[in-house]
Amino acid sequence: MDLVEEETTEDFHKFGAMQNAIDDPLNATIGFLYKRRIVWLFALVFMNVFSGAAIARFEDIIQSVVSLIFFLPLLIDSGGNAGAQSATLVIRSLATGDVEVKDWLYLLGKEFLVSLLLGVTMAVGVGVIAGFRAPQIVLVVSLTMILTVVAGSVIGISLPFLFNRLKIDPATASAPLITSIADILGVVIYFSMATWILGV
User: Fold this and answer.
1) C-beta atoms surrounding 143 within 10 Å
2) How far apart are CA 134 and CA 71, in angstroms?
3) Quick one: CA dihedral 189, 190, 193, 194, positive or negative?
4) How far apart are CA 128 and CA 134, in angstroms?
5) Cα–Cα distance between 138 and 50 in angstroms, integer?
6) Cα–Cα distance measured from residue 159 to residue 140, given in angstroms and rounded to the nearest whole number
7) Rounded to the nearest 5 degrees, what angle is found at the Cα of 145, between the Cα atoms of 142 and 147?
């Protein structure tokens, strides 16, 4: 039981983007806690630079339709959250042996349909909000919600399988990594849709 608890703790810490398990945070030194967390966080900072670069690339559309900014955090967070949910399910199933690498394609198809339903449901909600806040971008926001939730979910379910195939602990496909990738994709999808639909 102690061994199972130790392994589970290690997986949770990896999923939170920590290098190794922290067995006793209450008694751990500040330096120890810092070293266990800084590597992934520092790497993720550089990943998030791409989100900023993507936003800068769409500066013209942002200046033309300022209301787009209001929905940006909501949309990219939704994609990241959906991806983290998918990854959590897969990582746990891989750890318990309920799922194997050969099951990836079947689960991917299933997750695509589930995420499509989730995305459409969430798009209705965000579309209603946009209808009051900025009616001219209802279609942009709604379609982006669907696409970002599907993209985030596909990433979330695929990364653990990829890592497993490469003989890397699937827990390393952590929530912060998945959300960072989903953020970059979300920004590109959102402003690309806005440029296409609004014709700016």
Assistant:
1) 19
2) 10
3) negative
4) 10
5) 26
6) 28
7) 110
Burial group, residue 68, by CB count within 10 angstroms (0-12, 13-18, 19+): buried
- Nearest residue to 141 via CA among 85, 98, 197, 87: 197
- Domains along the sequence of the chain with CATH: 43-198 (1.10.357.20)
pLDDT tens-digit series, residues 23-68: 566 777 888 778 877 777 777 777 778 888 888 889 889 999 999 9
CA distance 183 to 166: 24
How far, in Å, CA of 153 to CA of 108, rounded? 9
Q: What tens digit of pLDDT does each residue of 93-135 get? A: 887 888 888 888 999 999 999 999 999 999 999 999 999 989 9
Tell me which residue has tokens 């209808």.
131
How many residues are listed for the chain in this entry?
200
Distance of alpha carbon 181 from alpha carbon 84, whole angstroms: 11
